[in-house]
Amino acid sequence: MTTEQNLPLEGVRILDFTQVMLGPCATQMLGDFGADVIKVERPGSGDLSRNFFGESSEIAMNNAVFSSLNRNKRSIAIDTKSESGKKMVYDLVLQSDVVVDNFRAGVMDRLGFGYEALSKINPRIICASGTGFGEKGPYAHKGGQDVLAQAMSGVMEKTSDPSIPRSIYPTTLCDYTAGMHLVQGILASLLHREKTGQGQKVGVSLYDSMIAMQMQEAAQWSKHREVLNWAAMPLTGVFDTTDGSLVVVGAFKVNPLQDICNALEIEDISPLYPDLASQRENKPYLQELFHKTFATNTTEYWLQRLEAQDLLCAPVRSLGDALADPQTAINEMLMEMDHPTLGEVTFVGSPVHMSNARPKLRHTPPKLGEHTDEIIDEFGLFSQSDEKLAI
Description:
It is built from 17 helices and eleven strands. The protein has helices at 22-32, 58-61, 64-67, 83-94, 107-111, 115-121, 146-152, 173-196, 206-213, 215-224, 256-264, 276-281, 283-294, 299-308, 319-324, 326-330, 372-379, and strands at 13-16, 36-41, 73-77, 98-101, 126-131, 201-205, 237-240, 245-249, 312-315, 334-339, 343-348. Strand 1, helix 1 and strand 2 form a beta-alpha-beta unit. Helix 1 packs across helix 8 (173-196), helix 8 crosses helix 9 (206-213) and helix 11 (256-264) packs across helix 14 (299-308).
């Protein structure tokens, strides 16, 4: 029997300037595992995602999109452009371990919060930044955004078939990937500091994260000038049935085409197309045959037949279906909370599972500046005249 242990990041303080998606998903994960995350926000408006719906009501500024990325954080409202506000930030830096932002390159330096300035205040400080394209080079000051990174990294260019128009990937692929890379960089820097006593600067970008995600494709292109497109494999596809859709991955078997034919109850044509080259050459015919056959019966019927042949397959489901699946609950991927403005709400939990360190909900997503007075008092952030600053 194991006993509950402290969360691994308890005692680590994060000064969080992030907003929207890339940075907040990173700092939320750090908060889930015990870090004290102090979210620095603009008075009156705060994180851009508070105004996602273009309204200024209390419910709108604490909407589900913002709240999904900002649990286990405390919010302090600071006018960072004022002298009193800068002093407050510097006082917090003295008592923090990590400063995180996802502004355009150079913004933190212009504010006076770049690594060079902050490391003079606290040599152990770690400054972690997420940008669109990196902090140097021709795109350094270009506005970074998920869809732009999809386009410029080569991710958007590929489709499963040339007849399918290129399109935007419909969820925040780049933001989340770069956010998790930012978490990795912060954790590695904290470990490095334990060994050396030195802080450092950490940088990730949407662009780099998408290039990194294509490491297999990049190696194939660099070596053979050949496009590797997993979605365009000849025996793989999404197929409509009489009551829905399913996906089949015809790979990782000695003779997947023969097994597909057996599952579809059609003549075995694998001798006619015995290798990947011949299957690629005849992909239009194969795909048309698959589409026509799958359309004759239900999703469940075909899934049972495909799985009997040990073929990789799955139903195409909505997010609502996935959230309601028992596997999602068993994996503890749902976190229920009583939100002060949204009421009872369910959010996605942490995908990282540790046997002796289960994430805890210590703070509901904060209202703008909700913890300003608390943090001022806790860290002694007063002027010489004992007047509270920048609130």
